[in-house]
Amino acid sequence: MIARIKKNEELFSGYFLVDVEAEGIGRDKTGRSASPGQFYMLKVGLSTDPLLRRPLSLHRKLSDDSVRFLYRQAGRGTALLSRLIPGDEVDVLGPLGNGFPIPAGIKHALIVGGGIGIAPLMALADYVSGERKDITAVAFIGGRSREYVLGAEEFREKGIETFMATEDGSLGTMGLITHILDEYINEHKHKGTGGWAIYSCGPHPMLISVAALAKKHGIKNYTSMESNMACGIGACMGCVISVLDREHGSSIYKKVCDDGPVFDAEDVVW
Ligand SMILES: Cc1cc2nc3c(=O)[nH]c(=O)nc-3n(C[C@H](O)[C@H](O)[C@H](O)COP(=O)(O)OP(=O)(O)OC[C@H]3O[C@@H](n4cnc5c(N)ncnc54)[C@H](O)[C@@H]3O)c2cc1C
Ligand code: FES
To answer: Is the pTM here over 0.85, yes or no?
Structure first.
């Protein structure tokens, strides 16, 4: 669908929020609302340059006709996106992918994000604090330094207890957010971790640590994976990752765009 840029603002150097409007953009083809963890493929400009679409996670659903993305200028595609101004058009496909599962019985959601990884987790925080008040969410946000700790204010405004860590100590605790997560679980696990789930998105090494912690404490971890994508709809096999085939005890390829981007961290062959 062709969507229109409503707002495209630089938060700080190289990090942007863009609001995109089109009729029905907040719903899929079947009319189901876009859910946290799903993503869109954006083709910047209506020419064939750059040829491929770029995946961006749903950051906030503003209405059925308007969604927000949080993006980092990584290369050519996102640089072109950053230059678009209100009224410009962008070709958008989505919402795509599976989103974060919230199985029955989940009561405590530990939301763990690093840097730009907060992008899809904000949508999850919106959903849990808005529509699932039966779930208590706690957020753990890490970054290299204070400007890379994104979304903490918004999480707190939603009433979500939020811990922060920076590698240089410029905000929150000095060190890695996974240490804070481990401490939190150790402090609270005597009440029982049944009904807990960890939702993670961020740099690969952080996801590995979170997955290991989740395994150590026996808590389910749903992790949003990244991979280079060409089509975004399961047609090109360009985005596969190795995942455990529990039935045969071997590993198989799964498509991040179609089978993910959210996976059970225990299944991912890290
Ligand atoms: C499901 C999904 C959701 C995503 N959501 C967001 C989001 O909400 N916000 C955001 O800022 N980014 C997100 N990304 C990453 C984003 O898609 C890439 O940064 C973007 O495609 C880079 O395009 P480019 O043309 O600007 O850079 P390129 O010139 O294509 O690449 C620049 C650098 O980024 C790396 N890169 C390219 N594509 C990806 C990718 N898919 N994943 C990781 N690294 C990549 C390249 O290896 C290269 O080092 C997501 C990726 C996936 C798969
Ligand atoms: S991007 Fe083409 S199959 Fe996933």
So the answer is: yes
- Residue among 56, 92, 204 whose CB has most ligand 1 atoms within 8 A, to mutate: 56
Kindly list the domain boundaries of the chain, sorted by start residue: 2-96, 108-224, 228-270
256 and 230 in contact (C-beta within 8 Å)? no
**Mean pLDDT confidence for 233-254:** 93
The listed CATH number (3.40.50.10470, 3.20.20.120, 2.40.30.10, 1.10.510.10) that belongs to domain 2-96: 2.40.30.10
pLDDT at 246: 86
CA of 20 to the centre of ligand 2 (A): 23
- For ligand 1, atom 34, the nearest C-alpha belongs to 74
Rounded to whole angstroms, the Cα distance separating 51 from 224 reads 25
For residue 258, the CA-to-ligand 2 centroid distance in Å is 7
| pLDDT tens readout for residues 19-70 | 999 999 999 989 999 999 999 999 986 666 657 789 999 999 999 999 999 9
Residue written as token pair 């290369």: 75
CATH class of 228-270: mainly beta
The Å distance, Cα 237 to ligand 2 centre, comes to: 5
* Beta carbons within 8 Å of 236's beta carbon, 6+ residues apart: 230
Assigned CATH topology for domain 108-224: Rossmann fold (3.40.50)
Atom of ligand 2 at shortest range from CA of 258: 4
Within 8 A by CB and 6+ apart from 94, the residues are 25, 28, 34, 38, 39, 40, 41, 58, 232
- For residue 233, how far is its CA from the centre of ligand 1 (angstroms)? 16
Same fold, 2-96 and 108-224: no
Atom of ligand 1 nearest to the CA of 50: 25
